[in-house]
Amino acid sequence: MITNLARGVNAFTSNAFLVTGETTALVDTGANFDVVAAIREHADELDRIYLTHTHDDHVGNVEAVREAFGVETWGFDPDHPLVENEIADGETVEIGDDDYLALHTPGHKDDHLCLYSREARTLFAGDLIFANGSFGRTDLAEGHRPTLIESIDRVRETVGSDLDVMHTGHGPSVEDRAVEDIEFAGRAARMG
């Protein structure tokens, strides 16, 4: 079960996805809302925090979640103070009941990861790709449009045509024709 704990929150936050199962995990913690209370509505325990990247709106609640659940944080950049465990490009991590391939996808931020499960036909896209072919900003520190385009292309080459769901860092998840939204984002990023 995947639940967006930030759905309906009126604050500057990313989405925060609670995935329950064999390994109950939080994909991004969001910021500026009580995510601990939201987690407790759905789960008694939490095994891990996975970060798509370390922009403040995605990691603002890390310390509160760590303290409440005694859980460690996993991300791409082990030199970042909020990342206790490194996820290398190409590594497999368990989220819920499925294995997810970690794809290093810079362009929006140097430490950006997308997490993809072929079995679950699910992609956590972070701030790389959004609904309707939108894509991550490249005007922030570490943003770089040509690198972002390469990352979008890599995701498109990796995901199967049977991708069911793309969970994005902001806005609604894509539950219909997600591959088309990835292709649209690649074309739109090239036009800008």
From TrEMBL:
Cofactors needed by this protein, per the record, are: Zn(2+)
Q: Name one Pfam family in it.
A: Lactamase_B
The keyword Hydrolase is annotated on this UniProt entry: yes
Q: EC number(s) on record?
A: 3.-.-.-
Top-level lineage group: Archaea
Q: By its UniProt entry, which SUPFAM superfamilies does this protein fall under? A: Metallo-hydrolase/oxidoreductase
According to the UniProt record, what class of enzyme is this?
A: hydrolase
Gene3D superfamilies (UniProt xref): Ribonuclease Z/Hydroxyacylglutathione hydrolase-like
Tell me the PANTHER family matching this sequence: HYDROXYACYLGLUTATHIONE HYDROLASE GLOC
From the Swiss-Prot or TrEMBL record, give the protein name: MBL fold metallo-hydrolase
Q: Which organism is it from?
A: Halopelagius fulvigenes
